[in-house]
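B., you asked whether I could sanity-check this one before it goes into the benchmark set. Here's the sequence:
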Amino acid sequence: MKNLRILLTILLYLTVQHIMQAQQQLNKTDDDATFTIKGLVREVDTYNPVVDVNIQVNGGSYTSTSLSGEFRINVKIGDEIMISHKDFETIYYTVKSHDDLTVEVHALIEDAYVKKIKTKSNSFKNTIDSAVFYKKISAEKSIQFITESIPKSTSVKQNAEAFEVLADVYMYWKQYDLAVTNYRISLNNVNATDVNLKLAKAYFKNKNHQESLAIYNSLKTSDLSNWQNVIRYEGLGDVYAQINQNSKATQAYTEGLKIATTNQILPKITDLNSKLGEVYNSEGNKAKAEVLLENSVALAAQENKTREVEQKIKFADFQNVNQSYDQEIKTRKEIIKDIAVIEKDSVIANESNITKQKQNYKIGNAYFLQKEYKEAIPYLEKSIEEADKKEDLIVKKDATKKLTDVYVESGNFSEAKLMFDEYVKTVDQLYIKKEQEISQAARFNKSIAEKQNRITTLETDRKLTLSQVELSEEKNKSQQLIIYSLIGGLFLLAVAAYLMFKYIKQQKLANNLLALKSLRSQMNPHFIFNALNSVNSFIATNDERTANKYLSDFSKLMRAVLENSEEDFIPLQKEIELIELYTKLEHFRFKDKFEYTINIDKTIDIEAYQIPPMLLQPYIENAVWHGLRYKNDMGLLEISITKKQKGVIAITIADNGIGRKKSKSLKTQNQQKHNSKGLGNIKKRVSILNQMYKDKVDVFIDDNTTEGGVGTKVVVTLKKD
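And here's what the prediction gave me:
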């Protein structure tokens, strides 16, 4: 009994603490008011304005300077403004007042490589070489060089090369749809086998599996080199594995492995052993998978240390999936030693699997899964320490969460509380970082789209120019070329416009989904807080049977809430079951304050309607807590579902409580603010869902005049899909 009371008290504290911190993160105060600051960027010596300077508020607005070097941007006191441009060092400025801002900059000295490029002959080959050099450094610079190379192209072969390099750049920066477009343009100029293989891979990365298979299958084995055949079979295996056709994947990988082994193509022998092992493991053939994965580790060791570690990690993941935790721990400890060797000669990015923080976390997780909590703690602590050092918030979040679980499972609740607080803090930091990354990605995609449109236009202009040159020699033929070029240009522009429209639509949908997820996470803490207090009260009075019954019903309700938390809409039947359970719990606590009825028109086909989850619960909670419980006599809560017209129903929640006006006068200032936020969140949810699903839900709140006084009535109108 005593342990149960302690556990419930800790759960209550952690829940309320987390909710309060989340609300502090989301709720803005009056001191956060934004204003517009005006600025100017100019050179320090000449006072000439600097054009196209990127002006960004940390995690907020974004703009760029005009032809006059001026900009305007919305900020708050304390915001940090980042002022960046390719020609000068990035400047950071903290907003302290409403005063206008003048930024004077010194131009950077160009690096030796760029100087070398500019002194060379300004040929197509040199420009393409520059594009290849910058491919992994700066997508913008690489694309700019390609843009400059297209007008210098003197043949269809050079034109095909330019678009192939452009597609390679998009592949590296994971813009797979644009890569597909440009590989196809390259192939329209020159039909090359290597480009076909790249296009097939781009389709696979863009999840166009059937198109990828069609290209791989169209290539004849007899027309390909040994290397190309290995790439083709590996690509086929990747696609079949992705669409769960394991037998075909096994066959393709095996054919590729035979060719690679015969011709001693060592890197591909390693890769294909590893991929075959993964397929066999997914089919449940553990023994065969283990042999192949061990082979891949041994083969990778003959190449270099990094390749060996990559394969060891795959082998450790295999051991984890098959619950061979002791072997997994042993393997990952070897990996950590290998990483220390690799780090002496190179810097490992956080995105790589080859990091100490990830491997320490996975060792700790393996110990946790074996319930060896004492052994798990030092590795999870090492993971957190390494993640802090490398500023890897994702691993730190996972490690602090896992360490919290370890302390809870081992009964060390004080350490669990400290770790949970650190976890919440890390989640908040990660949320801010993700917002910044989304903002940066949006600007990157916009910049890429603009450059792609520019290249498309240049390609159209180039074709038009060629047509005009040939006009004197073959008038009729050149007229046809002009028409075809115009049609092709319009088509390409239409494709570019469609891609931009698709991107904007996806971005809007992503923003709506993010907003819905945020609003769903803000469940009003009243019921959780009071329900747990009630259980605590029942335990304190030794009413264990009542506490168990209440806690059982409360658990059912929480399970239902969690199951529905990720859905935009759920069946109306589920929502009715949820509010029946919720109203039952509230009535259980306030038996002497109100009775309730739930009436459903039998002519309504409930299964035909969908409703946002937890939409009705806040209104029922308001009716009980702010209307009925303050009545001196017995109140009544009426919940009814009636047919309004064909395909439309009305859900009415009516009470004969003290009414909205009197309830408001009884509340503290803090309560009024909280309730308005809660109802505001409901309105935001309904507004976003109506945008996404075309006015499906409507909510109307009014006074409910009864013989005993004025209560409150909420009418939710719901349309059938």
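One thing to flag: The chain has 25 helices and 14 strands. Otherwise nothing jumped out at me.
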